[in-house]
Amino acid sequence: MITMENLNDTQLLNEMREQMQLLNRKLEKERITNEQLIRKAMNEKISKLHHKKRFWMPAAIILAIPCLYFMYSYMNFSLAFSLVTIAFLITAECYQLYTWKGIKQNELITGDLCNSAKKLIRIKDRNDKWLVYTIPFIIFWFIWFVYENLQLSSIAQEARDFTNGALLGGIVGGIIGGLIGYTQYKKGKKTINELISQIEELTREQEG
Amino acid sequence: MENEFKEVVEKHKSTIYTVCYMFSKDSDEVNDLFQEVLINLWKGFSSFQGKSSIDTWIWRISFNTCITQDRKKRRHETLPLSMDINLYEDKDDDTQQIQMLYHRIHALKPFDRAIVMLWLEGISYEEIGEIVGITVKNVSIRLYRIKEELKKMSNSKK
């Protein structure tokens, strides 16, 4: 058996080729796929096609009306706060569509590696821009949310427990959600930066 | 069309598995990626117009899925692959050789991993360029640098 220690430079590459052939031979003997796997992949397409524009956009607009009613009439938030909240949710949905504007999902998977990565970077870049506006808004919204709850509890004594619960839930949920979001954002950013630096490297070589 | 797709997958299962293996850290991740590649292949299957060869198309989709896949966003339940071997854990001589290859390739950056795998499979520079999206000249420059890096890695382990 050849070990890494006794290799010289030429042997290394030849050996890698042999190892690749060995891997191919080993895999050819395996079944790997099965009916269930392939069937599942084919069914996944249908659910994903309907996923974005066809379902969520109209659903968000239709759901906005009962949500507005719930916030204003049932939870007793002010009309302005309820409207701003709903408007933000609809804007977020619209921005999601803008993020994908001009990019077909198919292009991301069937294009050459550099092109697909560039498109993916464009999507991530648009998402980052969204965060620049969203984070200050969410802070502003949260302060407003606290203010609304304090107002409600000062008006109606019996509503105090409910508003305290909503406040506590909001704070805990906000912190946990914020931390998870930030961690995922950092992870995604690392992958993207790696891709950007590689594409730059490849393009630089191309220009040189 | 479904039967045609099944035949294509059956014919190229080793290629798909190899790419997923080289971009994963364990068997679970390979399972996950393999299924994501199958989904993407099926998504693009109806629009495949034969502008490139089916082999090139399979390589592209497999690499694109593995390089750009947002691994935190898994939306589907993972089904196990029909495998009697475990390339991460088996200890026989052949598997040890394959694991050596895995460690060498896995240590490279994602695009370099793709380029060197294609080269090891004996794919022409023109086709590598077409899959990666760079010129033939650039493929040869890049391959030279990758080979140097591999040699350096090998020497540092001696």
Please name the defining characteristics of this protein.
heterodimer; A: 208 residues; mainly alpha; B: 158 residues; 7 helices; globular
Class per helix and strand makeup of chain A: mainly alpha
Question: What is the radius of gyration of chain B?
Answer: 16 Å
How would a textbook summarize the main sheet of chain B? none
The portion of residues forming beta strands of chain B comes to under 5%
- Which pair of chains has the greatest number of interface residues, and how are they split between the two chains? A-B, 56 and 73 residues
Give a quick account of the main beta sheet of chain A: strands, pairing sense, barrel closure. none
Distance between the termini of chain B: 52 Å
Distance between the termini of chain A: 42 Å
Averaged pLDDT of chain B, please?
A: 88
The helix tally of chain B amounts to: 7
pLDDT < 50 stretches of chain A: 46-50
Quote the beta fraction of chain A.
under 5%
Counted beta strands of chain B: 0
Order of helices and strands of chain B: HHHHHHH
* Poorly predicted runs of 5 or more residues of chain B: none
Helical residue percent band of chain A: over 70%
**SSE string of chain A, helices as H and strands as E:** HHHHHHH
Number of helices of chain A: 7
Share of helix among residues of chain B?
Answer: 55-70%
Task: Describe the protein in words.
- The complex is a heterodimer of chains A (208) and B (158).
- Chain A is mainly alpha-helical and 208 residues long.
- About 2% of the residues of chain A have low confidence.
- Chain A is built from 7 helices and no strands.
- In chain A, helix 4 runs antiparallel to helix 6.
- With 158 residues, chain B is mainly α.
- Chain B is globular.
- Chain B starts with a helix and ends with a helix.
- At the A-B interface, helix 1, helix 2, helix 5, helix 6 and helix 7 of A face helix 1, helix 2, helix 3, helix 4 and helix 5 of B.
